[in-house]
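U., I forgot to send this yesterday:
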Amino acid sequence: MASITFAEAAKLCQDELVSGLIENIITVNPFYQVFPFDSIEGNGLTYNREDVLGDVQVAGVGATITAKAATTFTSVTSVLTSILGDAEVNGLVQATQSPDTDQTAQQIASKTKTASRKYQDMLINGTGAGDEFLGLLGLVPVAQKVATGATGKNLGFEDLDTLLHLVVSKDGQVDYMLFPARTIRSFKALLRGLGGASVNEVVEMPNGTRIMAYEGVPIFRNDYIPVNQAKGGQANCTTILAGVLDDGSRKVGVTGLTAKNAYGLAVEPVGVHQSKDERIWRVKWYCGLALFSQLGIAAADGIRN
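Result:
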């Protein structure tokens, strides 16, 4: 009699299953670790920026005072939007397919991760249309952009110096620079080209990891910054950003916004589906973005490497 085949034996034995799920959708963004959030009442936060200062004059004894122009302001409102999605799990699936990995917990965790990724994407690329808030790339005023020519240019130290000098709202302090991975490699090539220059200038993050720095300013890799932007005849340009994080004063830099009475990501049990054997859990986040001072951010677009 022939021996039992491997295929037949396999029917009586299951392969070992690793509990949980190995993440295979990852976008690098360590900046998110230090990015602040401010909770607000209502659906929006309104703040006033200086537009034109009132004038003064230098005058001698008996001179007529003509400096009477008033200060003018620009009123800006940053509003909250909703990032949300439903996790629905069939009752039979939950009851029979959850010995190693809880199906409901996995679906909720996945929705939460997607919501976080959506915010990180809008933080950079938000359009300000279709219920999206305006992201950092759209918030940089023209006067706060480093000139890189009609068709852009390769990264240079002078561009980084100019970028840092444009950020003045915190008395010249700069809290971050954001580079795509490609431009970080170009920055390292610049350092190596100096011949013996140290490439080990780093700052330590709150979680103990170390981030490469320039002039003491941490350079955060951000995979959400697109590298296929057009600049003149060039189609593969990108942008580097620099700026300050708001310090709680609501005057100097950028901060995330979230609802005071519903802070951060929330998971809400909706209940059983009306006509299906499914239980629904809603993942939601009421959030936004505010840039208080336009002098708290700067950008160099048209970077070709």
